[in-house]
Amino acid sequence: MSETITADVADQPGATPATAERQQEAATRKASSIEMQGLHKRFGRDTVALDGVDLNIQAGEFFTLLGPSGCGKTTLLRILAGLEEPDAGSLVVGGKNVTEVPPHRRSVNTVFQSYALFPHLSVRENLAFGLKMRGVRAAERDAKVDEIAGFIKLGDLVERRVDQLSGGQRQRIALARALVCEPDVLLLDEPLSALDAGLRSQLQVELLRVQKRLGMTFVFVTHDQQEAMVMSDRIAVLNGGNIQQVGAPREVYERPVNAFVARFMGHDNLYPVTARRGDRLTTALGELTAEEGGAGELLLIRPETLDLLPGTVEGANHLQATVAERLYRGSHAEFRLEIGETTLQATVNNRGRHLPDVGDRVTVVVAPEDLITLSE
Amino acid sequence: MSYTGVTPTARSRAMVRDAQHLLFTVAPGAAWIVVFLVLPSAYLMGVAFMSNGPYGLPEMPLSLESFKRLAGFGFLGWSPGNLYTLIRSLWQTLISTGLVVLVAYPIAYYITTCREKWRPIMLLLVVVPSWTNQVIRTFGWMNLLAPGTPLSGLAESLGLIAPNMGLYPSNFAVTLGLVYNFLPFMVLPLYAAFEKLDTAQVEAAQDLYASPVRAFWHAVFPQTLPGLLAGIVLVAIPAFGMYVIPELLGGGKGMMLGNLVATQFSGGANWPLGAAGAILMLIATFVGLFAMRRIGKRLGGGEEVVI
Amino acid sequence: MRKRTLQRGLTGFWWLTVAFLYLPLVVVVLFSFNASNSAANFTGLSLRWYQRLMGNEEILSAFANSMVLAITSSVIALAIGCLIGYGMYRHRHRKLGWLIVLIYLPIVLPDIVFGISEMAFFVQIHDLTGLLQPGLGTMIIAHVTFQIPFVALIVYSRFVGLDPTLFEAAKDLYATPVKRVVHFMLPTIKPALISAFFLSFTLSVDDFVISFFTSGPESATLPIYIWGAIKKGVSPEINAIAALMIGAVAVAAILSLTFSRRRQA
């Protein structure tokens, strides 16, 4: 990908060419934006689940709430669904204030983590449940159920009993049961977390395709940053009931705003800046020059931006290191390097060239444009 | 941001709704039990501390007369009839519970050694007789133990009973009836305990201890103890308060506490005395339940034991 | 070798115990077909006691009473117990120890104490207000009281076994509170409701002591009638009516066996 697009992403989050296209397609379908303002939620006397959340989600967006367990992401989703009432704040969906509207009167549907398929009903009856509750006539119900079953490719499962389905099939039925109601917004609460890795990545692709075809607003909850990056137009990272950062996946991954986001996105190379002269920053690794020094007190070096040269090579932003550990992963290799008392992680693509061994002396080359600083 | 500043209206509204829901669902049943069982029991307890009036109805003033009479002090000095009944009740409870354990323990074990597909049928076979009415079951024993029946004939020829007397009415018949009545109550919890038995422990014990008796005592018995205790409570508490079986199989000399109490409310007519007897049964019930909870907790997994 | 002896001994003991359990029932059924009215000697097959039964108004009315009592009390207990079972589930995170004690009270209270305290209480209330005249009404009240806990516990355990998100899925899929009850909760707990009803029914038919003390002169049920007949002196007719009741239990046992078999399959 060229440099210009990267800049584009960073400057205008959520407005990649792909999204624009999608939104055009979506214009013919139903999709709603979501505006949250000052949402507070507390459980019991002193467990704060949400501590004043302001967030806007655009119509037709695949939006992900990402964070560790207990960060408030599920509470936020349940407030969107109407299953929890916020203690304070307002929620507007599609221009309508729905803060106090009960779930059965909201045009919002949820795919639950446990799928929550009704055990006393057949697959067809499960799919038709929402339409039936809305008072849609039987003939129309059947037609819609058949249509969605064809769309999700589960036509032959429709007449089965729920307990005859596999995990992946249940997941699809749960998705179809929510989609068939044609909600303004679809909420997904870690819908793939119960599946094994292979099925999971297959369903990630499928889910993304469905969202593109329908142009519906999807709000997706996960604790898996890989999944979030694959799926989302934009990601909101939550911690302790607060939003830490909102942005496109590349922005959140490459330009985390604080140490929490950086660590959560999988970055370990964080070093306190002990002295600063313009763009020259001193850390435990030594002195490095960044393109923009910034004002943050932590220096982030992403492992995959580093180059390793064999032996000792002198130069600006060149660090002398010893290989302490090497993890060979086939497509790439991960190194734990020691620079004095400090360790540094580096990831090197395997292009069939020489890979340093444990104990080798190497030179680490750090590009100034890949260095960013952030606050704690 | 200070959280306490947020208006708590939504929150308190939800709490009110939740409390209303609790009231709506739970209140009818709770009120029913309170009005039709808790109040009557409380009234009965009160009666026990009142004096016996004309027609056996309770009267003021309060008195401990009924408890004295239960303990053997009559109007005319020492009259131990009631005390004997009390002792007989305890004795029958003890003996029948012991016998039930002796029969149920091997039966429960045997069921677990059988093929899995037979076990539900075997359990059903044990339980089905208790689905029939207690009066009918006891009536069946009356037929079996009456004078002139083969069983009575056998007992007669062995010299156990006098000629033409029959095996009932007698204390023996009451014990038999109690064992018969409560056997399933002991088999079920014991079976549950045996089914959960950790066989690895048993095999280890067979390695470690020379004799099978010691292996049983150290590895099997402790594991079945919670089930055994549950069974004992399920048998002993209702046995102590039994009315039907001693009434039909026991005759005058086989009376138990249940009959003493019932008589005071019908023919004998002394409500306070009957109520005092009922209090003894209540105490026995709660002591039994409490003891089982305590022991069950100490053994671990005590919660599942309660009914 | 020793193990096999033990197993063989146990098999023998098992069949002895089964014989012990069924002997009194078999005797009752057998003597219901006895040609003579002797309780000791079986003199030949006859259906005369069953014929006598059909003409006995008292038995027919006792049967009717038993049915009215069992069905009415079970229906009332089902409604009240179902509500309380759901309430216990919905509010299980609250401290409801007092409710648990209340629910277990009717189960642990000895029959005789249960029956006598209600009888004494009803008599007092009747003397004071003229309400609660002993009869089918008081019996229904008493039976509902001991049926409620069983219904509540069965319904509660069914709810506990459900995925709690199902309740949220129903809300999420546009079901109003009333529709949630009709289209989700009731159908989902239907098996529990059926077994709760049958258990209540069985408990009611099976009960003698509590019925005996709360009944009035006109409200004798089958067990009360049989009790009275036994007390008056054994009549062979009792064998016939008792045999019919044993037959009903046998049918119920076979039904429950086939039902549980089918569910396993």
Automatic annotation (TrEMBL), chain A:
Gene3D superfamilies: 2.40.50.100, P-loop containing nucleotide triphosphate hydrolases
Domain ABC transporter: 34-265
Pfam family, one: TOBE_2
Cellular component annotations (GO), alphabetically ordered: ATP-binding cassette (ABC) transporter complex
Single GO molecular function: ABC-type transporter activity
Keyword ATP-binding: yes
Region of interest (Disordered), residue spans: 1-33
Annotated InterPro entries: AAA+_ATPase, ABC_SmlMolc_Importer, ABC_transporter-like_ATP-bd, ABC_transporter-like_CS, Mo/tungstate-bd_C_term_dom, P-loop_NTPase, Transp-assoc_OB_typ2
Superkingdom field: Bacteria
Signal peptide start and end residues: none
Keywords: ATP-binding, Nucleotide-binding, Transport
Name of the protein in its database record: ABC transporter ATP-binding protein
From TrEMBL, chain B:
Keyword Transmembrane helix: yes
Residues in coiled coil: none
Membrane topology value: Multi-pass membrane protein
One Gene Ontology term, aspect cellular component: plasma membrane
Boundaries of every ABC transmembrane type-1 domain copy: 86-292
Subcellular location: Cell membrane
GO biological process, alphabetically ordered: transmembrane transport
Transmembrane regions listed in the UniProt entry: 21-50, 90-111, 172-194, 228-249, 269-291
SUPFAM superfamilies assigned: MetI-like (SSF161098)
UniProt xrefs under Pfam families: BPD_transp_1 (PF00528)
Keywords: Cell membrane, Membrane, Transmembrane, Transmembrane helix, Transport
Family to which this protein belongs: Belongs to the binding-protein-dependent transport system permease family. CysTW subfamily.
Name of the protein in its database record: ABC transporter permease
Organism: Halomonas nitroreducens
TrEMBL record, chain C:
Residues that span the membrane, as ranges: 12-33, 59-84, 96-116, 136-156, 192-213, 238-259
Chief location: membrane
Gene3D superfamilies membership: MetI-like (1.10.3720.10)
PROSITE patterns the record matches: ABC_TM1
Subcellular location: Cell membrane
Keyword hit for Cell membrane: yes
UniProt GO BP: transmembrane transport
Keywords: Cell membrane, Membrane, Transmembrane, Transmembrane helix, Transport
Domain ABC transmembrane type-1: 63-259
Tree of life domain: Bacteria
Family matches, as CDD domains: TM_PBP2
Keyword Transferase listed: no
Cellular component annotations (GO), alphabetically ordered: plasma membrane
Topology relative to the membrane: Multi-pass membrane protein
Protein family (similarity comment): Belongs to the binding-protein-dependent transport system permease family. CysTW subfamily.
PANTHER family reported for this sequence: PUTRESCINE TRANSPORT SYSTEM PERMEASE PROTEIN POTI
Name by which UniProt lists this protein: ABC transporter permease
